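hey m, so remember when u said the tokens were messed up on ur end? i reran from scratch. heres the input so u can diff it against urs
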Amino acid sequence: MKYVDVILPLPLNSLFTYSIPETLEFSVVSGSRVLVPLGRSKKYIAIAISIHENKPAFKVRPILDVLDKAPVLYEQQYKMWQWISRYYMATLGDIYVAALPAGLKSMDKYKPKTETYIGLMQSYQQEESLHVALRTLQRAPKQQKAFIEYLALSHWDTLEGSSPRLAIQQIARDELMNSVPCTLATVKALIDRGMLRQYEREVGRLNHDVMAISGAVKPLSAVQEEAYQSILLQFQEKNVVLLHGVTSSGKTEVYIHLIQKAITEHKQVLYLLPEIALTVQIMERLKKVFGDRLGIYHSKYSDSERVEIWKKQLSSHPYDVILGARSAVFLPFQCLGLVVVDEEHETSFKQQDPAPRYHARSVAIVLARLYDAKVLLGTATPSMESYYNAQTGKYGLVSLNSRYQGIQLPQIQVVDVKDLRRRKMMNGPFSSQLLVAVRKALQENQQVILFQNRRGYAPMIECKECGWVPKCTNCDVSLTYHKNLNLLTCHYCGAAFTVPTTCPNCGSTDLKGMGYGTEKIEDYIREEFPEARIARMDLDTTRTRNAYERLIDDFSAGRTNLLIGTQMISKGLDFDRVSVVGILDADSMLNYPDFRAYEHAFMMMSQVSGRAGRKGKQGLVILQTKNPDLPVIHEIVNHDYFAFFQNLLSERNMFHYPPYYHLIYIFLKHKNDDVVQGASMQFGEKLKQWFGDRILGPDKPAIARVKNMNIRKIVLKLEKGINQKKVREYLLFAQKQMSKDPRYGALQIYFDVDPL
């Protein structure tokens, strides 16, 4: 009798053993999926790990079916899963759930995902009939506004007779509703009137329209060629090389040449980006060079497409290049030769919730090592850990210190808003210097980016009489006002509430929005510059894949000329005609209660500044702050990353933070605050017996209640050289002991290794 050890898609770390019926004995292979029973009636798709003849000491049940003739999980992938499990203290079951697309874990056959699209009825595809429709809608202003917005988005508003000047675009229903904004009822009314039609369109299948023939690779400039050769030279001795190149220095072209070299050597390439938004621009550049050798993989695409890409990677003709966000590290590769981690400093590479809480950069390095592949980390603002590793010789280091074609780095002007407000020279979010610069840029047919790292209309509303602020009923946070939706929403649990007309505390009607979100900035800009063609890029406007693409495409093509956004606009986007960037509130980033606040602020402000002046003349950045004398502000102005690194490094060493110390955050959660308080004290005392003053806490985090779960946090600081394996054994043992206490049956304890 043969047996098989399997991983189940459940938060369990141990393998489960099943017997293999004789009829299936020669069908099961390591890495294949098998259907197994669990409990009285449940069935799960498990992954076979090892096949053996060691009869267990307990009664085992037989597997029910074999779903694959060949492995869907390669040996190197499983070894990577094991490393993630050990290092991040995550269960193999959680890793299985995170790694495989739903269509490979579910017993239901996956189906192509469709989205609802809106089209113009044929009877209205004439200029005259459109005018008739608009007149008909005069007494239905909401429908008229939605119809006009649809015509603009789809380019039907460019009709001349029966021929549009611009190519007609297909518009998703959600995209239209989000853009207006309007309700489903408004769209349905236009459909019922016979003006619009509704149809389903399959989404995903990115590469059905990709050219099959690869294009030519552009020649490198002298500076780029020097960097390219230096990287190849360092790859002879180092497995990981950091490419530190200033914004717009041409790092992407260097990546393309390295990818081309890997392909000619019959190797595969994984190209990781931190944000889905970035894949839109990079994808177009890579498609022109690599054609149908390129595959795209991230969470915005349909599950059916992700299943197909996974299966293609297992086939005899896999993609040579995979471009994707952090989840792409889990894909199967047959002959991986190079991993590029672009914008390696970005916090988006770290998975927060749910488990496994891995960092894609670290996992990519481990994956590359398992394939004997090389890793290139690229950025204009390296993370402290990566730059420290490069400075100390663990990684190779190559620098690109000048912009492509000699374009100067942007001039950064610091505006002291505290002084301006004291002298009554600034009332609102914009200084006169910024308004003048924006007006000049628009008059000269240039583009502008305004960076405000808060979405919504106002971060909170407040009663001017008694100071009451509405808070989420599920979380320990104030609610954000979204004017377009006319709702108060919680950015932690997603709960939405109606906007009160009177204060429930004192009855006053004097309720005002406090602070500025991107929505409010957009309103101000529309009043100040009615001629501007404005777009807003934040989480609220980019909920669909098409929304990302359209916003970026419209700004790239000049159909919009003023872009307002949160941190997603700072992440490596390349626009030719941006001459002015405004950083509206530097202090909100600098004053965040976290030891990484200055690091993250430096990166975000340096990156968003780098969007200015990428082609043509030098760009201008207006940086508004109440603290112009802070050293970090001067380092941003001078584009002096090395000085910033040196200054911050001494602080990190003094206070026992990375890169000198290794951090593990331990979180405890429970619905009852008294229970989690008692459990955290008991858990903290147990850990202090082992780790001494390396333990800090337990304390309440800045947000101490999320989704009705009360939270406590313990910090473990570990010096270099400590036995990490032993540390994890102690932590997991303590966690297991706590779980046996009947008082803490519903207590959640989890670990965040290398937190950001």
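this time it looks ok to me. Residues 205-213 have pLDDT under 50 and may be disordered. if urs says something different then somethings off w ur setup not the seq
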